[in-house]
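Case study.
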Amino acid sequence: MLEARQLETKLASLYKAGKIVGGVYLGKGQEAVSASLGGSLKWKHDVFAPLIRDQGGRTAFGEDLLDCARTYLGSVEGPMRGRDGNIHRGRPAEGLLAMISHLGAAVPVVTGMLLARRLKGELDGVVGATCIGDGGTSTGAFHEGLNAAAVEKLPLVVVVANNQFAYSTPNDRQFACEDLYDRAKGYGVAGHRVDGTDFLACLRVIGGAVASARAGGGPQMVVANLLRLSGHGEHDDGSYVPDTLRAGHLGQDCMDVARQQMVDSGYATAEEIEGWRSELEDRVQRALAKAQQETKPDPWHETWQACSQNPALPFEA
Amino acid sequence: MLEARQLETKLASLYKAGKIVGGVYLGKGQEAVSASLGGSLKWKHDVFAPLIRDQGGRTAFGEDLLDCARTYLGSVEGPMRGRDGNIHRGRPAEGLLAMISHLGAAVPVVTGMLLARRLKGELDGVVGATCIGDGGTSTGAFHEGLNAAAVEKLPLVVVVANNQFAYSTPNDRQFACEDLYDRAKGYGVAGHRVDGTDFLACLRVIGGAVASARAGGGPQMVVANLLRLSGHGEHDDGSYVPDTLRAGHLGQDCMDVARQQMVDSGYATAEEIEGWRSELEDRVQRALAKAQQETKPDPWHETWQACSQNPALPFEA
Amino acid sequence: MSITYVDAIREAQEQLLKDDPRVFLYGQDISRFGGAFKATKGLADAYPGRVLDSPISEDAMVGMAIGSAIDGMRPILEMQFADFSSVGFNQIVNQAATHFYRTGIPVPITVRLPSGGTPGSGPFHSQSMESIYAHYPGLVVVTPATVSDAYQMLIESVALDDPVLYCEHKFLYRWLKAPKIDHDGLPLGRARITRHGRHATIVTYSAMVHEAVRAADRLQQESGWEIEVVDLRTVKPLDMDTVLASVARTGRLLTLGESFPWGGVTAEVVARVCSEGFHLLDAPPKRLNSRDTPVPYHPNLWAAHRPTPESICIAMRELLSF
Amino acid sequence: MSITYVDAIREAQEQLLKDDPRVFLYGQDISRFGGAFKATKGLADAYPGRVLDSPISEDAMVGMAIGSAIDGMRPILEMQFADFSSVGFNQIVNQAATHFYRTGIPVPITVRLPSGGTPGSGPFHSQSMESIYAHYPGLVVVTPATVSDAYQMLIESVALDDPVLYCEHKFLYRWLKAPKIDHDGLPLGRARITRHGRHATIVTYSAMVHEAVRAADRLQQESGWEIEVVDLRTVKPLDMDTVLASVARTGRLLTLGESFPWGGVTAEVVARVCSEGFHLLDAPPKRLNSRDTPVPYHPNLWAAHRPTPESICIAMRELLSF
Ligand SMILES: Cc1ncc(C[n+]2csc(CCOP(=O)(O)OP(=O)(O)O)c2C)c(N)n1
Ligand SMILES: Cc1ncc(C[n+]2csc(CCOP(=O)(O)OP(=O)(O)O)c2C)c(N)n1
Ligand SMILES: [Mg+2]
Ligand SMILES: [Mg+2]
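After joint prediction, the assembly is written out as follows.
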């Protein structure tokens, strides 16, 4: 989560310097939620479908820093080889899905992967998780996917990061219920609520939801309340977020809260944390430097094939 | 409702005799629910989007018997002129929508009509209503539509006729919540529950929901529990419905209940009701006889134009 | 003993379930009920746990099939009607079609689309969507016209690593019968010369193959014309070798399809023949599609909406008189 | 003073709101925020209550627009990107497109689709969907290529009783400027000869009009070829009169588009020219589309995925050398 913040801070300045290929969407302020989820999942064992604000979860799940650096900097060595970018990167064979842009679309895909595990007899102790925003809950895909997971009683964990806005659209133009948490019962899934700025609470509630799913408790929905501490993307100043909201409880930075909580609990001293920070800054720097030097995609070396090789088919060139 | 039953009984036998163009889907057993809704709405004032089992509601709303007879018997005089059929008929200009087959799709359309009324300043005292099945609640269209209506606080009434099956699929393969009623809260809409076999209860609860919406109470969702007393369509024997269910409370015929309730309450005597029945049978018979004699659609007189006339456009012939 | 087109689809699924533990079926009412068209009858009992009823959620159905395929399964998804795949459109064209290109991980799903018109089915139970899906890179679109192809191409679709839209024609379900499954060994992606001729070529697919053959027989009887009928079998990829070779022999081309007239298979075939084999043509190519309206409900209108042996004969006589 | 393509779209909406009380705007982030591309900037303040933010529910958004249109309004729906209209596909092709035919009641909705590729946008923010929607009877699909057309065609789209897919090209948004809105009076449904020539015709639309003109200029400079460029303006209906007249003058045809290569506008135009004007062609017609993969993300790949002046020149030289 610290690594994610370091990385994203760096990405933001690279974006401002015009060094990034495409857009930059940050998870600033959402690291506690995202990392609590990613950190509860096991690489190559569980399934994780991150969304646009899940650098924290990616890192905690076990994604290589280089995958990120390479995608943002347009290296052909990245997992998407220049064909898709940035937040869309993934390693589906390792359980890290590569999102499409259409919100909600990952919910049934994770569900389907879990169904596959069940059919193969490999579901035991496995969890599939995905994040979605407050805005994403309005999609039919979210509804159909969560409902189908509930019918199949699969160990799906959906974390709704309610950052009060979908791009510029506030909650009151997005839904009319008092709390998105109220939806859980209507799907017959276990519901949880958490203060997304409180790191320890996130660890407990989100970690708990993952543990429940893993133990056979069926689908789980966690609603985390928080604010994003950046614009929608780095092109956006987020000026539609009222100052009062920023100044209030939800506006506190989960990183500060986490640091304090670690120190208070004696888990680490302020110096130790500062040490991690500079070590991570170094690693981030190295990964970015390496990626920056790598070859860019070249149309002459691109196969331009949308279908997998199949010699039996007389595909058009 | 009595008229609807008469009509549909007749349609079923015409279907068996091979006289009907296309399929026949009946609302047998669902008349109390449907008619309670249709009867609470005002023709040319409110909006009603019936689904496949809403003959009861159509009749109560004010649809002409002939519209029905003509569509089933393939008369070109029907409202759809042979271009679409049977349950898909409607008179949108009078507030009776013409359904497409895709389940859930009517929910946002009714919502949009109500939005139009608001924008025109004509919303006062208006209600828009639609029915949907237990199966239809699994569609993304239902979710997106109901959510949008809730955000706009429009006077939409959605009646979920939970007849325990979607075609052959039982509730437990359709959703995992204990009661679909639990969904209302998650949308921030008023929720209601009713025994769909109990005519007086339907009148009260569904009529009440319509009245609430009309009075400015915002969107309403009513879940009615019942069974359909026919197959999915007349081609289907419904043998997947367990006998125990048929023999139980939900298996009782709402028409019998209604008759008893009318008699008990002194609203009508058994003789009077029998009188209505035979009068209605007559009317149904006449409408069908008239429609049967009318001209059938003729491809040489069909315009074959999917777009409305627009001389400015060089449309392809 | 004979086997119908829909039986062939059922038997192919049975064979697949038997041979390949990765195969499972997902769709509305396909389990104990056996599906709206009985294409999965008995399979739930024979393969418990592998034939699953889905909620009415086409978008999630496709999404789940994709997820399971990413994880190594070979799902066969039944849409109750092709027309309802419009609800799962996003997952088909944006998730399934792009996944291999984006990630290198293929998505071997087969989506069965009960397609095409039958009298009295109306605008929402009659659609032919092959022209829509074929537009998208990354999708394979197959359109079997014979009982044996219905069987064999379903087997091969599931074997393919790429997403396949398997368009099965409802009109053929019970009407088309064969003494037995008897495959000529043509692989997926190859067209077939269904009827040999030398005066003109009709390029078509699915149910229209049979209407084309009827028209060709009539033209032969009435006027001695010998019409070649090419059954594309898969509309994407298109077997242009077979098409061009036929046009080279006959010099005249009609493309025939049941989907809407703007764009689609008939346009693509004409455009490619004209670009790649312009000099082979002795007359302007012709196209025949359904009419440019939704599919009408009443049988009188329906019969005039899609091409018929009569309208094909008229078009062919024009083509031949050129 | 000059006005950009996206400003023209904004001004047209302002004019429409001003002139017609039936008009309202609905879409994600279009109200106070002014839309992802600022195409509705300031309109919410100027027309309170008539510029509404929607939830992220494309299916419901289209459904609601349809309902409001049935009830007499003239909604303009903004999709944040054309690519997301895939989620509203069912309502567009099955509800909006069929309603007039089925009931006789027209559905005057205008759906704005920010279309086409820009570097770094990737597979889901770059799509051109005109070829998909044009397939469906009952839909009108317009593709403005100039600032004045962007304005004028939006005004006319809203005036039309039928559902219109208004495909606005994101690449043109800020790059394309004009001194002022200055319309030549061509109605919706008529193509324009953007550049006159006599050796060959390029039929195209939207952003590709500009690439075609660039290629034509280059061919003229380098080799003296005079290339005619036809801007279709609306891809459905297609103005075949103008296209055929041009081909009659030049004898050579290239069709050019940015959507995927299978089917679509380029196929439809070639197929119709060949069927209706075969004798006008002195050489086999050619087509140029994007490549048959999803739109790639990296600018290096993106630039080679869509047609460019270079690839157009290569195709044209082949065509001219025939
Ligand atoms: C189906 C769909 N429609 C529209 C968009 C465009 N879009 C991208 S992000 C976004 C806002 C998302 O808001 P939310 O779900 O709350 O997530 P947040 O950005 O707040 O984390 C929108 C509208 C999209 N990606 N998918
Ligand atoms: C989107 C969509 N998918 C599939 C169908 C096919 N279909 C028609 S009716 C039906 C069952 C509907 O069940 P339910 O909603 O419970 O209504 P009921 O028939 O029980 O009244 C199905 C699956 C459809 N009409 N629309
Ligand atoms: Mg949000
Ligand atoms: Mg039901």
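Observations recorded in class. Residues A 53, 101-103, 133-136, 139, 161, 163, 165-167, 232; D 28, 56, 58, 80, 84, 87 surround thiamine diphosphate (ligand 1) (CB under 6 Å). The mean pLDDT of chain C is 97. We will return to this complex in the next lecture.
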